[in-house]
Design a protein that fits this description.
4 strands; 195 residues; mainly alpha; 6% strand; two-stranded antiparallel sheet; single chain
């Protein structure tokens, strides 16, 4: 594959159809069904097809062509979001009919009442904020140390030079190296010898 493009003829007819159908709604299962794969296996077929490098290259190439064709860029999207946000925040007077005439509604203090599209403004600002990484998720993590795990299991902690029991791959790893939590240590609630 040169330049990320699949070789000519590397995809069969059904695979090419899958790529075209996938680009419609980005739903691999439905794309597989529309491309002629069995409804019963479409989910796994779609998953498997998307894992193939030739399919990935074809999807990437076609997606890039679509983007170029409609001239969409990150700048275009961000400018659009900014414009939507500004339009949604533009206040408009709330009008009421007084006989044959329209007048601006007033509140209890005699002030004019205004409205704006707060939901649209909030959504546009949210998307812009996400793009700029202004909102970060914070997680509070409570990590129990190795010594606490060993103490809870009622065993003596190992020295830094003593290897732990074999890892899943059958290799011993000294303390301080990356091993799974609790390797060689039974959980506190587990009965002896249940590991």
């Amino acid at each position: 594959m040169a330049n990320g493009e699949p070789k000519k003829g590397s995809l069969n007819k059904r695979q090419r159809r899958f790529v075209a159908e996938y680009l419609i709604d980005l739903n691999a299962t439905q794309a597989a069904i529309r491309a002629g794969y069995s409804k019963h296996t479409a989910g796994s077929q779609g998953f498997d097809l998307l894992r193939k490098p030739e399919i990935q290259a074809a999807v990437g190439m076609k997606t890039q062509k679509q983007i170029e064709k409609v001239d969409i860029s990150a700048e275009y999207v961000l400018k659009g979001l900014k414009e939507v946000g500004e339009r949604c925040m533009t206040r408009v007077p709330v009008m009421v009919r007084g006989g044959r005439h329209l007048a601006q509604k007033t509140d209890a203090n005699g002030e004019g009442v205004w409205e704006f599209d707060s939901a649209g403004a909030n959504r546009a600002l949210e998307l812009l904020g996400k793009h700029l990484a202004l909102f970060t998720e914070k997680y509070e993590v409570d990590v129990t140390s190795y010594t606490d795990l060993v103490a809870a299991a009622g065993k003596a902690p190992l020295s830094k030079t003593e290897p732990v029991e074999s890892t899943e791959k059958g290799q011993a790893a000294p303390i301080g190296e990356s091993v799974g939590v609790g390797v060689g240590v039974e959980p506190p609630d587990a009965p002896e010898g249940s590991q």
